[in-house]
Design brief:
The protein is built from 3 helices and 9 strands, in the order βββαββαββββα. By secondary structure, it is α/β, with parallel strands linked by helices. The relative contact order is 0.24.
């Protein structure tokens, strides 16, 4: 499926790096989605990225289909950490749940968990940014409840507050060119589109 870029303009900041050239930082793409989640707290596990996308060097797919260093410079943050925090921030805005990345920072354990495994995370040779993979969500099954009026009765099993789900995603964002600004804008729009899909599943 193809998602068109968001109309809002992303701020792209170029930081001067001591080594390795300029560093690029993008802000989160906005979304108007608001839903009520089935659970009040959600843990987002650290996003799993393919090896070429884990490096701070900005990778692109060239005309021959080879993944290579773009020579643009570096991302200003570790990509897996940045993607995790961006999705966490998006879900906090899109849902009424308290969402946090691992390690879980709150005293009580989370009611729901989201685990994202990315297969493709790159600016392609066709001037698109592609984000593809799979995400999982669910929660622990609550302890069975005893009948206070009949302790000999078998405990009543309760359903998990967040049903187990596994979803494939394949998000493609068109880019006007393969400059750092276009790559950063498309990447952020793709992460917002993924966050919206996850938010809708948290509400179902």
């Amino acid at each position: 499926m193809i998602f068109r870029p968001l109309a809002a303009t992303l701020a792209l900041l170029m930081l001067t790096a001591c080594e390795g050239g300029p560093q690029y930082l993008v802000e989160t793409a906005p979304s108007s989605l608001r839903v009520n989640a089935r659970v009040s707290t959600v843990l987002v596990r650290t996003v799993s990225l393919p090896s070429y996308a884990e490096d701070q060097k900005i990778a692109i797919e060239d005309e021959t289909g080879v993944v290579r260093d773009s020579k643009f410079g570096l991302w200003a943050d570790e990509p897996a950490r940045a993607a995790t925090l961006r999705i966490t921030r998006n879900l906090n805005t899109m849902t009424n749940a308290n969402v946090a990345p691992e390690p879980w920072p709150m005293p009580e354990p989370p009611q729901g968990v989201v685990d994202i495994r990315v297969e493709t995370f790159i600016a392609t040779k066709t001037n698109t940014f592609r984000l593809a993979g799979q995400y999982f969500m669910g929660s622990e099954i609550p302890e069975a409840v005893l009948d206070p009026e009949d302790f000999d009765k078998a405990p009543r099993e309760l359903p998990p507050p967040l049903p187990d789900k596994a979803r494939l995603f394949d998000i493609v964002i068109p880019m006007p060119d393969s400059t750092p600004g276009s790559v950063a804008t498309a990447q952020s729009a793709a992460l917002t589109a993924l966050s919206e899909a996850i938010a809708r599943d948290l509400a179902r």
